[in-house]
Design goal:
alpha/beta, five-stranded mixed sheet, 10 helices, 5 strands, globular
């Protein structure tokens, strides 16, 4: 009889084989990749689901794409930080700049343009863009709302925050509202666990020149909807904690210790004392 670990591995292999066989059958029955995806077979068990690309009228390698004149100056400034034989080190900041210019996402044509600038094969840029989840490769809203889904935020109610956003906007995760203003995604650990739950808002409404990325913390379902409506009206919600009893990351109601200047350390030199 196989040990427990071997039995578990065998079950997983059988499951993966069944999944692969089902997917292969769906491909044979589908006349094209588009209809295969439309049939609901595009979900995958592996990270290739994040790397999958199908050409579309708004995202294909034949689209004309280049940095604006103002952003090209930023590209040259980025490249100035690296030796001429290491220009590929600027791929990440250039992808970020391209995403800001293109309304919050990076089309494959932009990746090709970056590859040409740094003198590498396009696959080298694709590898970077598909590895880092902060690079969006499908269209997002002008305000891209990212809900923290890591354990501290989840315990403090991030699921309810996401549900409030999706219900209020009438979309599913990673969908864009019909007016193009909002989309909702998930991000892992934003580093403000003490102020959980929280969201980040990537504001692409003003292009790369006016791009902002702000945290909104100590949220409630009611407050996150209010923030959305403020953004819709073109207002700027106060960033940081949304709890009026807190200051930054301090305790609600104010400090309970350290109310005075710290005392100097005791004298260690007995002769001097």
């Amino acid at each position: 009889m196989l040990p427990p670990a071997a039995r578990l591995a065998a079950r997983r292999l059988v499951g993966l084989a069944s999944s692969s066989a089902s997917e292969a059958a769906a491909r044979r029955l589908s006349p094209s990749p588009i209809s295969y995806a439309a049939a609901g077979c595009s979900s995958r068990l592996f990270s290739t689901a994040l790397n999958y690309h199908i050409n579309s009228p708004e995202n294909n390698p034949d689209m004309p794409w280049e940095f604006t004149e103002a952003n090209m100056k930023k590209v040259n400034e980025i490249l100035s930080h690296y030796p001429s034989n290491y220009k590929q080190s600027g791929i990440i900041p250039m992808l970020d700049l391209a995403q800001q210019q293109h309304g919050g996402w990076v089309p494959v044509a932009a990746m090709n343009a970056i590859a040409k600038i740094v003198g590498v094969a396009p696959i080298r840029v694709y590898e970077v863009a598909t590895f880092y989840t902060m690079f969006n490769r499908t269209k997002v809203g002008k305000y891209h709302l990212l809900v923290c889904g890591t354990t501290p935020c989840m315990i403090r109610g991030s699921r309810e925050i996401e549900e409030a956003l999706l219900d209020h906007l009438g979309v599913k995760r990673n969908e864009v509202t019909s007016d193009g203003l909002f989309s909702v995604g998930e991000m892992e650990c934003m580093g403000c666990c003490v102020n959980a739950p929280m969201i980040a808002v990537a504001d692409y409404s003003k292009g790369s020149e006016g791009y902002t990325y702000n945290y909104y913390e100590d949220l409630t379902p009611k407050r996150v909807v209010e923030i959305v409506e403020m953004l819709r009206r073109g207002e700027t919600p106060p960033r940081g904690t949304q709890n009026p009893e807190r200051k930054n990351c301090g305790p609600a109601g104010g400090n309970t210790t350290l109310h005075s200047e710290p005392k100097p350390p005791p004298c260690r030199d007995l002769d001097a004392c």
